Amino acid sequence: MLDKKTKQIIQDIYTLGGTELSLIIDAVKLRRNQLHTTDAQSLRPGDRVSFTGRYSRIETGVVEKVKIKYVLIKTDRGQRWNVPGSHLSLITDKETA
Question: Which class is 1-97 in CATH?
Answer without folding.
Answer: mainly beta
